[in-house]
């Protein structure tokens, strides 16, 4: 199946390539949408990222892509699934819930003539959890702490079609958690592992309850741990050189 529309509904997130999902795209009709010259739409490629250059979205739709693919990236740096469940980085951050309910559904979700996407040629990617985990990893009962997130998560994804769910990477290994706190690495590890299990359960449920929907889970925790353990596998001499800042690896990863 060849996908031409790539809708990103996500918070700030890092994966094995470990850059923000956010590229600074605005879904406002007053700004340019994706074109052949700039598949991100706005701002100019590679967008505004937290990787020191092109992030994983740019690599995926341009550098390593062999088909024409347009990205509609609703991601907002610093977001959580729902600001009422976990505080975002600032009050103006758009949560994943609002990205879907207030931006995607009333806009692209209506399949306007200017973006005639279908379920057969479109792929949705949700990359959420880092900021949520960093908010709640100190809670002693993680099952109870995460339950309201995944009740909401299950409801939100019912509006989507073919979906890639990207798991939370091994943020317990980042300098932010290891050195700066206040998050304890062991607590962060336990929390993100349960979070990823819950995401996989949401993906499985969506696939079984919605006819014709295909879901994928990308295990970024394992991949990230492997890269940190063996940075030379991605052409980096030491783990210390992985980082663009204390939470985000650079574009080389």
Automatic annotation (TrEMBL):
<keyword id="KW-0732">Signal</keyword>
<dbReference type="InterPro" id="IPR036514">
    <property type="entry name" value="SGNH_hydro_sf"/>
</dbReference>
<protein>
    <submittedName>
        <fullName>Uncharacterized protein</fullName>
    </submittedName>
</protein>
<feature type="signal peptide">
    <location>
        <begin position="1"/>
        <end position="18"/>
    </location>
</feature>
């Amino acid at each position: 199946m060849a996908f031409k529309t790539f809708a990103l509904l996500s918070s700030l997130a890092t994966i094995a390539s470990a850059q923000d999902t956010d590229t600074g795209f605005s879904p406002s009709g007053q700004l340019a949408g994706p074109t052949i010259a700039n598949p991100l739409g706005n701002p100019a490629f590679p967008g505004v990222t937290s990787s020191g250059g092109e992030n994983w979205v740019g690599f995926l739709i341009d550098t390593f892509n062999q088909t024409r693919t347009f990205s509609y990236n609703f991601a907002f740096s610093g977001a959580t699934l729902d600001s009422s469940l976990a505080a975002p980085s600032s009050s103006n951050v758009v949560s994943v819930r609002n990205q879907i309910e207030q931006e995607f559904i009333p806009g692209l979700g209506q399949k306007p003539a200017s973006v005639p996407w279908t379920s057969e040629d479109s792929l949705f990617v949700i990359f959420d959890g880092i900021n949520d985990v960093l908010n709640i990893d100190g809670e002693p009962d993680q099952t109870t702490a995460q339950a309201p997130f995944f009740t909401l998560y299950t409801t939100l994804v019912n509006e989507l079609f073919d979906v890639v769910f990207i798991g939370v990477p091994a943020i317990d290994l980042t300098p932010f958690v290891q050195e700066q706190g206040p998050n304890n690495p062991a607590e962060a590890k336990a929390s993100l592992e349960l979070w990823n299990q819950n995401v996989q359960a949401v993906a499985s449920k969506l696939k079984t309850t919605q006819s014709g929907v295909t879901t994928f889970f990308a295990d970024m925790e394992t991949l990230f741990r492997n890269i940190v353990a063996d940075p030379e596998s991605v052409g980096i001499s030491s783990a210390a050189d992985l980082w663009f800042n204390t939470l985000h690896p650079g574009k080389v990863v």
